[in-house]
Amino acid sequence: MPLRLNLSPRGLLLLFAAILLVAHASVFNFVNDDAFISFRYADNLVRHGELTFNLGERVEGYTNFLWTILLAVPMSLGGDPVLFSKLFGVGFALGTLVVTLRLLSVVRGESRTQDAVAAVFLAASPSYAAWSTGGLETQQFTFLLTLSLLAYVREARLLGVCLALASMARPEGMLLCALLGLHRGLRLLWRRHRPGGFEGAVLLGFVLIFGPYFAARWAYYGWPLPNTYYVKAGPMSFYGPGLLYLKSFILDHHLYLFPPLLFAARRHRLFLTLFAVVALGLGFHVVRVGGDFMGQHRFLVPLLPLLAVVLVLGGDEIVKKLVETRLPRKALVALGLALISGLTARVVYIDRQAMEPTSEGGVDRIGWLKMFAAQCQAIGEHLAKTAPPDASIATTAAGTIPYYSRLYTLDVLGLNDEYIAHEIPAHGSRPGHTKSAPESYVLSKDIDYLVYHPTITERPIRQSASAERAWAQKGYRWESVEVPGLVPPHWGVWRRAR
To answer: 441: burial class by Cβ within 10 Å (0-12, 13-18, 19+)?
Structure first.
């Protein structure tokens, strides 16, 4: 007998959203250089039993423990982390569509066909689709954050478990714990209630899972926070680039239209207060850290499911008001089609712009990230074939090249180096790039290849005679190499004379 799907209109819309998301994510289909940092940690765990970047050096240069461990599973079976990072990313993104619809049903008290509009909104979002790939934990954290919010509004005692997992996926999970605690505390205070069994169960569930993990982490790496925190922490203010980052997110997702939606959904006061606490708290955090140097707002993607819920709740009320005005049906249909056409054109424009291999205002577009990872892969594979196995490299591109070369690596920006993270003062205003190893420190480690940011050109690269003389005194000579698969084909590097 032929297989027949008996889907409701809501189910059909959800299926459409899922197909749209997969198709939209394929437009970007990339893995960026930073993802290979997690791949290298997972690779060393699988092959050597060490959750380290360089063997024998316990430095926590990642902030996504749960994601790294998840990738280690297929890698232990011979799977390619590039492929599985995309599959897992899209899988979590699809899961969030379902959880978001369930959250809507709980907030409303019933399920409606139009709830699936929230899933379509997420699938159509360039940021949501882009970071369904990318190789990072963005969608894993988004799924766990949305699941935590669902558990919170349902007052499910498994909330503590959800929050513990979210905190193990991204450090912002701890901030989510604080924000939900603040919201719950204010709610209890307003009702003049005391914490009870629900709050106790949540706290117990969180401590039983996160407590042992945190203690083991601290014992293994020797610091209470990841090395990346100390690298990125500094006296510099990031509010300027952070506000520009937020502005770009608002414009791309037309969030200037959301105040009327929030007003229209005012009868759902409890959810709106939750939305305000979480959105403002996480939003302020992202602005404070300066946003991100990668395009398409990955740090703000976890807020998109909340925005989707607001869109549907407020949109329902606005549509009701329009119907009550008794406007001609044709006018309402024309208005809807015009809105959909305009938004579709805007999405297509953003997608095309995002895939341009350029950077703007210190932010690298997805096309540039994709191109750069491919270039670094070619260089890493070349080093794996030509460099001595005990060679070492120093680079600011500490993902793809180290992963494919499997050489000892010093991240000049301090990712995997405690001295740079704790002793070098911060400077500049580019997020994640405020600390850099002094030349004297790099040379003291007898690095063989001074890659820094890879020099890649169409024709062989030359250095000035004075530069070559100066570096010769330090024991280095300039090499310009034509690398197979590299586009453009020539790579220049200072190499130590052994």
So the answer is: middle
